[in-house]
Design goal:
This protein has 140 residues and is α/β, with parallel strands linked by helices. The chain is built from 5 helices and 5 strands, in the order H-E-E-H-E-H-E-H-E-H.
């Protein structure tokens, strides 16, 4: 019972502090049809790919969770809920840990989720661009 009370206190502290410490970065518009989600070092490649693709006329946005615990789920849900047709591509140099977090946070959303998983080897900007071009469609 003492352990239970102590743990409940920790959980309450965590939930109270979450809004103060959760961080994310995003760059998307209401007309985007694809959203790249990436974390850590892969986020740089995803951001570069989104910017390059945008200049080429591809409707691609970008979402980077800076913290993963706590995960910026509320921000991601808000971003995704603005467009039920928005397709999501989770990019990670792991075997689905970020993908799992994204799917959990977007459980009630109907947006299609694809992934580019490259465990242990990293992901390049070019690989992300190729994936988007294979899965997406260009505006115009």
């Amino acid at each position: 019972e003492e352990l239970y009370a102590t743990l409940l206190g920790h959980v309450e502290d965590y939930e109270r502090l979450t809004p103060e410490v959760v961080e994310w970065e995003e760059n998307r518009s209401e007309t985007d049809e694809l959203l790249l989600v990436a974390h850590g070092i892969v986020a740089r490649a995803a951001k570069d790919a989104a910017e390059r693709l945008k200049r080429q006329g591809w409707p691609v946005g970008y979402f980077r969770p800076i913290t993963v615990r706590p995960f910026p789920g509320e921000a991601l849900r808000k971003s995704v809920s603005q467009n039920p047709a928005l397709r999501i591509i989770v990019v990670e140099s792991a075997y689905g840990q970020l993908l799992s977090l994204v799917k959990t946070e977007l459980y009630s959303c109907t947006n299609p989720i694809a992934s580019l998983l490259r465990p242990g080897v990293g992901v390049t900007t070019e690989e992300i661009e190729e994936t988007v071009k294979r899965l997406g469609k260009k505006v115009g």
